[in-house]
Structures are given as structure tokens and as C-alpha cells.
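ok so i was messing around last nite and threw this chain in just to see what happens. nothing serious, just curious
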Amino acid sequence: MATTAASATQSYLRDARLQAGYASRDTAAIKLNYSPETIGRHERGDVPVSPDDIIRYAEGYQRPDIMLRYCASCPVGKKTGKRACLLYTSDAADELD
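result:
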């Protein structure tokens, strides 16, 4: 099972979607290959967002800062006192560089 951040409201996901030009979850769903319902659940914090989900949002919205915000609230970030830690996998790091 993947490690997830606390299920606090993920308003930054909604903000990132809107700033990326996706006024509706329906249009973002096409880019992200998630259902609009899943995007809504992630944005509201109804379901936990995994590191893989965060990478998909960061790439789809062209917002790598989403990864930093996610990790600042993850258990590892809290435990180490880090304000942010990168969640890059080797594949994701190659795609974002």
C-alpha cells in the first residue's frame, strides 16, 4: 500500500487545476486520466492522495510545486521537520527535468 498524506482538504489541488486553465473537473479529467469524481474527492480531501497521484497532478497541471506542498504535510516531512522533500521517482524526475 502506498504512503499517503493526511486527508486534510487539498485546496491547493483545486487552485492548481484552475490556474492550469481547467475550469471544470471534467476537462481536467481528460488530461489526467482520472474521473471527475476522483479529482473532486482528492480536492476535497475525501480520499487520501498517494505520491503517485501527486506526481500525476504535478505533471498534468505542469506544477512541480504540488509535490513540495504534498510532502510538507506527509509523515516523513513532519517527522524530519522538513518544509518540503521531493517525491520524485526516477521516472518522474526524468519527465520533470
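not much to say yet. The CA atoms of residues 1 and 50 lie 9 Å apart.
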